[in-house]
């Protein structure tokens, strides 16, 4: 992470020097800080709501019930994960992704990552479960890309929602690819 | 089918809310107290992630506003030619992994320039609809945790991304 971030900033400065775009670079940087804070403030509202709702579901036992329901599926993808509550939060994050709930998905994923990190024995190295969770998160299918469809109809598409089925197809392919990569590395590293 | 799926998405959030609240009432949980309690946690997490989000926004902005992104576009264009990916899509493909809102704007521009139902326009729509901002996700989620070695998650995300880009283009050729 150290290197990635340093790389991004240094490459940026280097290119703005040779492209002579330093003023734009500086403006962009200051502007992006403001946008980041605005983004978090927007996010914190939704975060509070969903965490509140999750608490209710947790207390009422709904989360345990949901986790039990998807156990077989989870067993294959996350063989090392046993905490029902963590599984339920991961599940919520996937659901929010699938249904295109945008920032809500981010909220659940962050919560899940926090929990996975707490269960991780080597705190500076990602566990298999964390890797798989992230891989799924990054490639999860979305049933209805609502924003995209809205923009399509604004720009006069004859059938804005025609992209739904191809999108799901593409999503499945990329999800399968990500899962395979994860499983491949897990197997290779578990051998002595 | 498309219609059914849109309706399902539409009802997702209200549906979950109703389910949780009704189930909570049925189990006699003090719903309001729980909600407030959880919301407090949520706000605390929001403050916790703030520095990481600022760092990521700054990093991405550095790449985009300096013109570094444009340079990489030029560098990679032979590769995209080889896979018969239309050149209108190159900047979108490069921007998508780092910036969600940026790629939305770019998608809008591609559609406006080429037509919403054109090949490039449809491809762009599918790409934005299916791909994730993988660098952003990695940086944010691993930033929040103390993890420094992210192992194969980067490879998995990248392979998934490449597959979805190629699949978007080739599936588009059939519709």
TrEMBL record, chain A:
<feature type="transmembrane region" description="Helical">
    <location>
        <begin position="131"/>
        <end position="151"/>
    </location>
</feature>
<dbReference type="Pfam" id="PF07670">
    <property type="entry name" value="Gate"/>
</dbReference>
<feature type="transmembrane region" description="Helical">
    <location>
        <begin position="87"/>
        <end position="110"/>
    </location>
</feature>
<keyword id="KW-0472">Membrane</keyword>
<keyword id="KW-1133">Transmembrane helix</keyword>
<dbReference type="InterPro" id="IPR011642">
    <property type="entry name" value="Gate_dom"/>
</dbReference>
<feature type="domain" description="Nucleoside transporter/FeoB GTPase Gate">
    <location>
        <begin position="41"/>
        <end position="151"/>
    </location>
</feature>
<protein>
    <submittedName>
        <fullName>Spore maturation protein</fullName>
    </submittedName>
</protein>
<feature type="transmembrane region" description="Helical">
    <location>
        <begin position="163"/>
        <end position="185"/>
    </location>
</feature>
<feature type="transmembrane region" description="Helical">
    <location>
        <begin position="6"/>
        <end position="25"/>
    </location>
</feature>
<feature type="transmembrane region" description="Helical">
    <location>
        <begin position="37"/>
        <end position="57"/>
    </location>
</feature>
<keyword id="KW-0812">Transmembrane</keyword>
UniProtKB/TrEMBL annotation, chain B:
<protein>
    <submittedName>
        <fullName>Spore maturation protein</fullName>
    </submittedName>
</protein>
<dbReference type="GO" id="GO:0005886">
    <property type="term" value="C:plasma membrane"/>
</dbReference>
<feature type="transmembrane region" description="Helical">
    <location>
        <begin position="89"/>
        <end position="107"/>
    </location>
</feature>
<feature type="domain" description="Nucleoside transporter/FeoB GTPase Gate">
    <location>
        <begin position="48"/>
        <end position="146"/>
    </location>
</feature>
<keyword id="KW-0472">Membrane</keyword>
<feature type="transmembrane region" description="Helical">
    <location>
        <begin position="154"/>
        <end position="172"/>
    </location>
</feature>
<dbReference type="Pfam" id="PF07670">
    <property type="entry name" value="Gate"/>
</dbReference>
<feature type="transmembrane region" description="Helical">
    <location>
        <begin position="6"/>
        <end position="26"/>
    </location>
</feature>
<feature type="transmembrane region" description="Helical">
    <location>
        <begin position="47"/>
        <end position="69"/>
    </location>
</feature>
<keyword id="KW-1133">Transmembrane helix</keyword>
<feature type="transmembrane region" description="Helical">
    <location>
        <begin position="119"/>
        <end position="142"/>
    </location>
</feature>
<dbReference type="InterPro" id="IPR052549">
    <property type="entry name" value="SpmB"/>
</dbReference>
<dbReference type="InterPro" id="IPR011642">
    <property type="entry name" value="Gate_dom"/>
</dbReference>
<keyword id="KW-0812">Transmembrane</keyword>
